Each structure stands twice: as C-alpha cells, then as structure tokens.
Automatic annotation (TrEMBL):
GO (cellular component) term, any one: cytosol
GO molecular function, one term: uridine phosphorylase activity
Disordered as annotated region, ranges: 1-33
Biological processes, Gene Ontology terms: nucleotide catabolic process; uridine catabolic process
PANTHER family xrefs: FI09636P-RELATED, URIDINE PHOSPHORYLASE
Family: Belongs to the PNP/UDP phosphorylase family.
Top-level division of the source organism's lineage: Eukaryota
Domain Nucleoside phosphorylase: 94-345
Protein's recorded name: Nucleoside phosphorylase domain-containing protein
Gene: 106081852
Basic and acidic residues bias (residue ranges): 10-26
Binding site for phosphate: R135, R179, I180, G181, T182
Organism, scientific name: Stomoxys calcitrans
InterPro entries, per the entry: Nucleoside_phosphorylase_d, Nucleoside_phosphorylase_sf, Uridine_phosphorylase_euk
C-alpha cells in the first residue's frame, strides 16, 4: 500500500471532494520524509490505469456523464463528438505535444513531419484543425498531434479537459502527452533543456490546487519518471548544450509570482528575491514556468503518461529580463523539440512505424531531376 500521505483516490470515481482531500495530503507529497519508492508509484499507476483504460488501452473517462450525453461539443477545439468522426480523424494519435503558442506548435508540426518521414497526400498541406475556435491551434501529423495551450494554468486546464475527452471519443490507445515549453532557469544557463521531475506549486507542493463547488482540493502533480529518464537518455553528448532533470516551480504569474523585480508592481527587495531563488534552488528547483502543475495533475488523474520538457530562456540568478537575441531564442526553442522528436522516432522505430528519413525530400526521388523539372516549368510560366 502507498503511504497515506500520497494516496490518491483510485478506486472510486464517484468519490466526494472531501474524500479526495483527506486521502491526498499535499504537504506530504514533497518528499519531506515520505519519499515514495518507485515500485509503490508503479502500484498507484496500475490502480489509476484500472480507472482510466479499457482493456484494449483506449482512454476511459472518470466522468460518467459524458457517455450519457447526446453529443459532446469540444467547444474550444471547434470539434464535436457527433459533428465529426473523431475516431476516423484522431484514432491513430499516439503522441500529443503541447506548447504555448500557435506558431511554435505549427513549427513543431512541420519539424516532426520531417523527422518521422510523414508524407502528406500530394497537393495537401497542414491545416489548423481548431482554427475556427480562435482559441487554440491544432495540427495533426500522422500519430502526432501538435496543440497550442496558451499561457498559464487556466488556459491549459480548459484544453486538457477537451484533449482528454478527445482521446476518449477518438478511442486513442495509450496516448503520451508531452509539454514543450520555455522557462526561467535557476542556476542554469539560457539554452539549457530541462526535463521536469516533479512539478511544484507556489508553496512547493507537488500538487495542483483546484476549487470545485467552492471547495479546495489538491491533485498530485506527478509526471512519469520513467519517461523523464527515457527523454534524458536521448540527450546526445554532441548536443552543444546541457539537458538536465530537476524540479519545476509552476507559478500563476510571470512577474511578482516569479520573484521578478521588473513588473508593474514590486514590494520586495533584490535581496528578498535572491533569498527566494536560493531557497528554490536548495529545494531542487531548477526552473520556473506557468503550466506544469495543471498539466501533470490532469494527465496523472487521467492515467496518461506525460512529460514536461522546457528550455531556459535565462538564468534567473543573473536577472529578470528575457533579452537574448531573436535568432538565439529561436534556436533555443528548437532544442526541446529535437529531444521530443528523438523520443517519438525511437518509439515509432520500436513499433516498426518509422517511415525512414525521406521526409526532407517528401515524394522527390531525385532532387537533381526535380530541380531540372522545376526550372523547366518556370521557364514556361
Ligand atoms: N517562462 C516563464 O514562465 N518564466 C520565465 O522566466 C521564462 C519563460
């Protein structure tokens, strides 16, 4: 049995919030004495899985209301269970990659298409599936779904509910969710890639706080440690930057919430700020961002294997302003994408589903002849 301090309700999805509150005490979840052994964690995962998977690995919801509804409109994705054949559209999805901005996720979609050698049918191009929601962007590249989640935990929360329901309606089997983001490093240089080991809230609790029906509950903000290690193992000694694993602080704000001195308001001193950052560092925190606890809490509650991989845009021990040149920043932001692409390629290769590395050329058999044909055609324009 797992220690009571970290037990989550995995046996009854009709549990009351009160019950949940008693069974998951976040003050014990930060390793203060109650460091859970990995096999105990595995036991918990197995139990969560019973609640969240059908026998064929398809996603089961912990909400009995959904299957009783005539239709389920995924409003913020501009999709619906009866308006769209979600199984046909998304049934093959194995990886859901999320990041803050629509542009980053569109770039990632093109990048991953090349990396996994996925070919679009002739004459077609990637389309933003959720364009008409005007909220989030979504691109599908074979088994990879690339989705923007906006900034901060409320935005991620709304998206996660609908993405998990999408997985259910589409009958996706064992999807893996990965957040690809940016962060401020603590004691690490800009450009460092950081894989989150545990997501901590502003009070250093390894949980996310929800207010539901006026009651406060906590859900564990746990990520898959094995997946984190697998990702770390894919860092290459030839990478001209470090890839590390550590704890991530998730805040509700970029400025005062992250101890910045350069917001519109600031009622603390530079030494208060430094003392705070040093305290974080002493607690194993290596980066700060604004999405990881909700991402971890909802994937964990849904029994979905998940990871967070961010690149540091600066070392907060050296300052507050994000001021690296645009080209440098663009190159840094590609780094988590490269790591995640290595992982996706590895998994697909293991399943014999990697198409080879012909993606760069698409359907081009001979780049030399292709160029000649192109020149010939242009001459007749
Ligand atoms: N994102 C954050 O939340 N904080 C930073 O310092 C940089 C990116």
């Amino acid at each position: 049995m797992p220690p009571t301090g970290i037990a989550v309700d995995v046996t009854d999805h009709h549990h009351s919030h009160q019950d949940y509150k008693h069974r998951f005490d976040p003050t014990h979840a930060n390793g203060n004495g109650a460091q859970i052994a990995e096999d105990e964690e595995e036991d918990i995962y197995r139990e969560v899985r019973k609640q969240t998977r059908y026998s064929d690995g398809t996603v089961k919801l912990r909400n009995p209301n959904i299957e009783l509804m005539d239709q389920d409109i995924l409003y913020h994705l501009a999709l619906g269970s009866e308006s769209h054949d979600l199984n046909e559209m998304f049934g093959d999805v194995k990886f859901v990659c999320m990041g803050g901005t629509p542009k980053r996720m569109e770039n990632f979609a093109h990048f991953i298409m090349n990396e996994i050698g996925y070919k679009l049918p002739a004459g077609t191009m990637l389309q933003d599936i959720s364009a008409y929601s005007y909220r989030y962007s979504m691109y599908k590249v074979g088994p990879v779904l690339c989705v923007s989640h906006g900034m901060g935990t409320p935005s991620v929360s709304i998206l996660m509910h609908e993405m998990i329901k999408l997985m259910y309606h589409a009958k996706c089997q064992d999807p893996v969710f990965i957040r690809i983001g940016t962060c401020g490093g603590i004691g690490v240089e800009g450009g460092t890639v950081i894989i989150t080991e545990d997501a901590l809230d502003g009070q250093l609790r390894n949980s996310h706080e929800f207010t539901i029906l006026g009651e406060t509950i906590h859900r564990p903000a746990k990520l898959d440690k094995k997946l984190a290690r697998e990702l770390k193992a894919l860092a290459s000694p030839d990478d001209p930057y470090d890839t590390i694993i550590g704890k991530t602080l998730c805040t509700n704000d970029f400025y005062e919430g992250q101890g910045r001195l350069d917001g519109a308001f600031c009622d603390f001193s530079e030494s208060d700020k430094m003392a705070y950052l040093e305290k974080l560092s002493a607690n194993g925190v290596v980066n700060i961002e604004m999405e990881s606890t909700i991402f971890a809490a909802l994937t964990y509650h849904a029994g979905i294997k998940a990871a967070v991989v961010c690149v540091a845009l600066l070392n907060r021990l050296n300052g507050d302003q994000v001021n690296a040149p645009k080209e440098v920043m663009n190159e840094w932001q590609a780094r988590p994408q490269i790591l995640v692409a290595r992982y996706i390629r590895k998994v697909l290769a293991q399943k014999g589903q990697l198409k080879g590395i012909f993606g760069a050329q698409g359907s081009i058999k001979s780049p030399r002849r292709f160029k000649l044909v192109q020149q010939e055609s242009q001459a007749h324009e």
